Amino acid sequence: MTIEPAVVLSAEKLSKVVEGPDGRLTILEEVSLSVDRGASLAIVGASGSGKTTLLGLLAGLDRPSSGSVVLAGEDLGALDEEARARLRRRMVGFVFQSFHLLPALNAEENVMLPLELEGLDDARERAGSVLAAVGLGKRLHHYPHQLSGGEQQRVALARAFVHGPKLLFADEPTGNLDQRTGAAVSDLLFDLNREHQTTLVLVSHDLGLASRCARTLRLRDGRVVEGDQ
Amino acid sequence: MRPVAFAARSLRREFRHGELATLAAALVLAVAALTAVGTLASRVESAILASAAELLGGDLGVSARREALPESFSSEAGKLGLASSRSVEFSSVVFAGENSQFSEVRAVDAAFPLRGKLVVADGSGVQSVAHAPARGQVYADHAVLTTLGASVGSALQLGGHDLSIAGEIVSAPGSSVFQFAPTLIMNLEDAESSGLLGIGSRATYRVLVAGDAAAVERYAAWAGQNLPAMARLTTVAEAQANLRSAFERGENFLRLAALLAALLAGIAVALAAQRFARRKTEEVALLRCLGASRREIVLALSLELVLLALPACLLGAALGIGMQQVAFLFASQLLGGVAPALPLAPAASAFVVGLAVLFGFALPPLLRLRDVEPMRVFRRDLQTRLRRFDALYLLPLLVGGGLILLESGSSKLAGVLAGALAAVAVATLLLSLLLLKGLRASSRRLPGALRFGLANLSRRRALTLIQVGALALSLTALNLLAVVGPSLLDRWRADLPQDTPNYFALNLQPGQKAEFEQRLAALGASNLSLLPLAAGKLVAINGKPLRASDYAEDSRAGNWIEGEVRVSWSEQLPPSNRVTAGSWLATDPPTAELSVDRGWFELFRLELGDNMTLRVGDSEVTATVTSVREIDWDSFRVNFFMMLDPAHGDPLPHSLISSFHLPPGNAALATLSRSMPNLSLIDVNSILDRVRDIISRVSSAVTWVLGFSLAAGILVLLAALAATADERRFEIALLRTLGAHGRQLTAAVLGEFAALGLLAGAVAAAGAAGTGIALARNVFRMPDYWPPAPELAGMALASALVVMLAGLAGTRRIARTPPMRVLRYGS
Ligand SMILES: Nc1ncnc2c1ncn2[C@@H]1O[C@H](COP(=O)(O)OP(=O)(O)OP(=O)(O)O)[C@@H](O)[C@H]1O
Ligand SMILES: [Mg+2]
Q: B116: burial class by Cβ within 10 Å (0-12, 13-18, 19+)?
C-alpha cells in the first residue's frame, strides 16, 4: 500500500495569456496554490477576474501559458491531452453553473455516464443509489427538461460523485438557482463532500457559500489578492 | 469506456429521444428511393434488351465478311453453355419463269432464331412460328412473291437450284432498314452445297449466341480476343442504329432519374448529418471533460453511425424493393409481358451508396468534434479553431462525384450533371453572399419584424449558405424531374411522327424517276424523298492509297475500306442533318466538294480541306471535304456518310433511292413493284412499330421512375425544411418570452423564408433550364430542345411559396408550444 501525499492539488506560478481581438490579454498572472487531501478551497472574485479560467487550468481542461499544475501527484504539463483525460476520468468530478446534463439522456443515464466511460457493469445500480441519495429516487426516468433547475443540479451532483472522484471542481454550482434551492444544493454538495472524503475546489461569488470552505482564495484581475501565497 | 457498448447505448437513447430520427429517416428514404429507381431502371433496361435480342435473333452476334467464322466460334459457345446458330447472308438474283428479282438471302441453320420468332404464312394465309425451312425449300417475303408472280407452293430458282416456296415471311428477326433485310430465307446446308458461297461472293457469315447473361459476357470477351480480321461483334444494343439510339436515350432517361433521386437523398442525409454533428458538440465537450479520450470519442461516434446506418440502409433497401415491385406490377404491361428477374445489384449498390453518403457527409463534422476543447463546457462561445483548408471537406465532394460517375454509367451524363450542379451551387453561394451584403446595408430601413427575420439570415451566415445551397440543389433536381424530364420525353415521343417514311425503294433508275413520282402521288404517298445513290470504293485520302492496316485500332474503318461505300448528292442539306463544321456544298463549284458524317470524319482522322478519292464503276472522283455533318440516325430517312455536290455527282453511274410514307398494307404497292421489276421495295413498318413501341414503353416507364423520384424528392425537401424550422426553436421561444406577438413572429419568419425561397427557386429554375439544354444537346441529341420557360418560372414561384409555407408551418408548431418548454429543453 502506498502512502498518499497530503497535497492533492498544487499550482505553481500559473499564468494564462490569450490573443484577444485587441491584442494580448493576461487573464491569469502567476497564481500559486495548494490544496490538501480532503480539504476545501473557495475561489472568489468579481466577474471576469479569472476564476473559471483558473478552474479549467487546475482540472487540466486547458493548458497554462506558463507555470505548472500537479494533480494527484501527476504533473499535468508532462501529460498529453489523452493522459490528462484518463486522469480526469479516474480522479475528478465536475459541477457546472449551467448543469450540462445531456438532453437526450434521462436522469439515471446522465448519472451513469462517468461509470460507462470507465466500462463498469454495475453502472445502473450505482447511479440509482446515488440519485436516491440526492433525493431523486423517484425521478430516475425523467429527462432534464422535465426537471426543475434545482433538480437538474442535483442530478449533476449525483453524476459528479457517482464514480467516487478524489477531487471535485464546482463552478458556481448555485449560480443559476434561487436562494433556497441554492442553499439546499450547497448543503447537499458539502454533505456529499464529507461523506465521500472528496477534495473540493469551488468557484463562487457567493461569499456565504465560499465561507463554508476551509480556505478562500480571492482573485482580482487575474492575480491572487488574498489567501494562499 | 467500451466503445461498442457505449455507442449502442447512446444510439438507443438518442433514437428513443428522437434526436437521430431525422438522420435515420433521411437515410431510409435515400436508400429506398435509390433501390426502387435503380431496380426499376435495371428491370426496364433488361426488358428492353430482351426485346432487342428478339430483333437480333440472339443475345450477341459475330459477323465476318467473305470468310466463314472458324468452328471455334460455335464450339466455344457450347463450352460456355450457350446456344448458337450459324447463318450466311448474301444477295442474289432469283428467277421464277420469266421474272427475276434481286434479293437479300439469309441461309440459316436449324437453331435459328435463338431469340424472337420467325413467323411464316402458308398458302391460305395461316400464320405459324417456324425455324429454318427444310432442305430444298425457301420462305420468301411478300414483295419477292409479288414481283416474281409466285405464291406459296410454287418454285423459284436460286443459283441454278430449284427450290420450292414453303411459306411467306410475315416477320423475321434480324430485319433492319438496309443491312440485312432478308427477303428470302433458305436452309444453310442448301446454301453451302449450292456453290452460292463461292469465292468472290459478297457473303456475310454470322454466328449468333444466346443464353445466360454472364456466359454471354464471357463469350463476348473470348470472341473479342479471337476475332479474325474483317469480323466484328454485334451486341444487342447496337444491333441497329435506329433502335440503338432509342435504347440509349431510354437508358439515359432512367439513369438521369436515378441520379437525381440519389442526389436528393444525398442532400437530405448531408443536412441531417450536419445537424447531428452540430448537436453533438456540447456532448463531446462534456465527455472530454469527464475524461473520455479523443480516440474513444471518435470511435464511439463512428460506431454509433455504423449502428444507425446498417439497419437504416437494410430497411431502406427492403422498402425500395417493395416499392419498385408495386410500380413494376403497374409498369410490366408496358414491357410487353417480358418479366425480367429481380436484380439485387441495384439494392446492394444503393446500400453501399447510402453508407458512403452518410459517412462522406457526417464524418467530417464528427471528426472535427475531436478538436472540441473541453473548456467549452464553461464557455459555450469557444470556437473550435477552423482551419482555412480542411482536407476532410474533400470527402463529401469525392463521395458526390463518385456517386454521379458510378450511377450514370456515361461520362457525358455525369459530366453535364456534375457541371450543372456545381454551377448552381456556385451561383447560389455568390447570390446569397450578395443578398446578405445588401441586407446588412439596408437593414435600418426595414420594418422591425422583417428586419429581425432578415438579420437572422446574415447572423447565421454559414448555416444560411448551407441551407440555401442545399435548397437550390434539391429544387434544381425537382425541376429536372417535374418539368425538364417530361418535356424531353415529349420531344422524344414526337420524334417519329405519323408520316415517318415506312417504305424504302432501291434500285430505281434515273430514267424512271418521273414515272415513280407520278405513281406514288397517285397512291397518296407523303413525305417522299428521292436521292441518287452511287456505290463505289474508297481509294485514297490526299492521294495516299487507303489500307485497312492504317486504321488497325478500329475495325469499322477497315470494313469501309475493304467493302462498298455509298455516296449521294443533293443541292439542299437533307432534313435531319446539321452542319457542324465548314459550310454546306456550294452549287456548281469548280472542283468537287464533299460533306462527311462526323463519325466518319473522326474515324478516318480527316481535316477540312482534305481530298478523298472514290471510284464508282469506271470513273474516279476526287473531292475536297468542305463540311462535317451531324446526322440524326433516328429519323428513318435515307442518310449518307458522304455527299457530293450535284454537279460532280450526276455524271457518276447511279441509281435512285427513295423513302416515303404510305398507310401500311396498301395492296396497290404490289402493282408498283410488278410494273417496275428492278425496284427493290423495303417495308420498314415492323421496325418502325418496334421503335415506336420501345419509345412508348420506355417513356411510360421513365414517367413512372420520374414520378417516383419526384415524390421522394418532395419528401426529402420537406424534411430538410422542417429541420431548418427546428433550428429556430430557441430563437422563437426567446422572442415569445420577450413578448413578441404572433403576427411579428410570422412576419419575421415569412421574410426570412421568402428571401431563402425566392433566391433558391430562381437559381434552381435557371439551373434546371440550363441543365436541360445541356442534357438535350450532349446526351439526348436533341439540339433544338428548349425547356418550357413559363412552367419553370411557375416552378420558381411555387418553390418560393412552398418554402415559405413549410417554414411557417414548422415555426407555427413551435410558436404554439409554450416557450418555457423550449427554453427548459435547452439550446
Ligand atoms: N479564450 C479567451 N479569449 C479571450 N478572453 C478570454 C478567454 N477566456 C477568458 N477570457 C477573458 O478572461 C477574463 C476572465 O474570464 P473568466 O471566465 O475566467 O472569468 P470569471 O471570473 O469566471 O467570471 P464570471 O464570474 O463572470 O464567470 C474575462 O475577461 C474573459 O473575457
Ligand atoms: Mg466563470
A: buried
Verify whether the Cβ–Cβ distance A117 to B1 is below 8 Å.
Answer: yes
Amino acid B180: pLDDT: 41
Q: Return the domain boundaries, chain A.
A: 36-57+83-226
Give the residue, A227 or B801, on which the prediction is more confident. Answer: B801
Type of residue at B397:
L
Q: Which of A89, A109, A152, A203 to mutate to test the interface with B (most CBs of B within 10 A)?
A: A89
Establish, for the pair of chains A and B, how many residue pairs have beta carbons separated by less than 8 Å. 90
Which residues have CB less than 5 Å away from ligand 2 (the ion)?
A 52
Q: Each residue of B218-255: pLDDT tens digit?
A: 998 898 888 887 777 877 766 555 566 676 777 788 77
Residue B2: all three cell numbers together = 467500451
Summarised one tens digit per residue, pLDDT across range B324-351 is 887 777 666 655 555 667 788 888 888 8
Do B374 and A61 count as a contact with CB atoms less than 8 A apart? yes
Q: Do A116 and B375 touch (CB under 8 A)?
A: no
Complex confidence, ipTM:
0.80
Q: How many CB atoms lie within 10 A of CB B666?
A: 13
Q: Using 50, 70 and 90 to split pLDDT, how confident is the model at B827?
A: very low
Domain A36-57+83-226 sits in CATH at 3.40.50.300
What's the CA gap between B340 and B78, in Å, rounded?
24
Decide if A80 touches B, using CB distance below 8 A: no
Burial of residue B420 (number of CB atoms within 10 Å: 0-12, 13-18, 19+): buried
Residue whose CA lies nearest to ligand 1 atom number 8: A53
Q: Rounded CA gap, B582 and B579, in Å?
A: 7
Report whether the peptide linkage leading into residue B113 is cis, meaning its omega lies within 30 degrees of zero. yes
Can you name the residues that pair with B565 across neighbouring β-strands?
Answer: B536
Q: Do B291 and A87 touch (CB under 8 A)?
A: yes
Minimal Cα distance from B4: which residue of A? A119
Tell me which chain A residues have a C-beta less than 8 angstroms from the C-beta of B14.
104
Confidence (pLDDT) at A138: 93
Q: Which amino acid is at B82?
A: L
**DSSP per residue, B640-709:** -SEEE-HHHHTTS--EEEEEEE--TT-THHHHHHHHSTT-EEEE-HHHHHHHHHHHHHHHHHHHHHHHHH
Q: Which residue of chain A is at minimal alpha-carbon distance from B14?
A: A104
* Residues of chain B contacting A88 with CB distance shorter than 8 Å: 289-291
Q: Select from B268, B306, B339 the least CA-distant residue to B47.
A: B339
Residue B741 neighbours by CB under 8 Å, 6+ apart: none
Residue A104, pLDDT > 80, answer: no
CA distance to partner chain B, nearest, from residue A82 (Å): 5
User: To the nearest whole number, what is the mean pLDDT of chain B?
Assistant: 79
* H helix intervals, B106-212: 142-148, 188-194
Q: Which residues of A touch B288 (CB under 8 A)?
A: 61, 85
Q: Is the pLDDT of residue B772 over 50?
A: yes
| Tens-digit pLDDT profile for residues B174-212 | 644 444 455 789 998 888 887 777 665 678 888 999 888
Residue with grid cell 409466285, as numbered in its chain: B150
B605-630 pLDDT, tens digit each: 888 999 999 988 888 899 999 999 98
B489/B690 Cα distance (integer angstroms):
18
Chain B interface residues (partner A, CB cutoff 8 A): 1-2, 5-6, 9-10, 13-14, 17, 19, 282-283, 286-296, 373-375, 377-379, 821, 824-826
Residues of A in contact with B17 (CB under 8 A): 103-105, 143
B146 grid coordinates: 409479288
Q: Cα(A47) to centroid of ligand 1, in Å? A: 8
Question: Which residue is closest in CA terms to ligand 1's atom 11?
Answer: A27
